[in-house]
């Protein structure tokens, strides 16, 4: 699972939303400023997170975003998978040539790439947004 800038922004956005979440929805401008994410890019990402069921939105002056599930139930892998448009087992995620691989289906390295991908996914799936918030609180000496 390649960690693109978009995935980094999405993770930071959900992280900030979890930190800011209370009774009222959180505006994208607050998330963007806190996490140094370009606002237009964040709006696209939040739209994708909404379609994936990670966040809910409310329109209007008092509008913004809220998490659908509590932070302890949202895994980093869930966020990354929500942004992945195509998850096909037959596509080699590590091949630089992607769709034009001359060895597709007959690649000696495919098992290696698959094992590495499973290991990476396991790490992402073990880490929740709440665990990241807890880590930040320990680093900064604050508690929520």
Automatic annotation (TrEMBL):
A single Gene Ontology CC annotation of this entry is: cytosol
Q: Which Gene3D superfamilies match?
A: Winged helix-like DNA-binding domain superfamily/Winged helix DNA-binding domain
Q: Which Gene Ontology molecular-function terms are recorded?
A: DNA binding; DNA-binding transcription factor activity
Keywords, sorted A to Z: DNA-binding
| Entries under Pfam families matching the protein | Rrf2
- Superkingdom of the source? Bacteria
Q: Does the keyword DNA-binding apply?
A: yes
State the protein's name.
AsnC family transcriptional regulator
Q: Please name the taxonomic classification of the source.
A: Bacteria, Pseudomonadati, Thermodesulfobacteriota, Desulfobacteria, Desulfobacterales
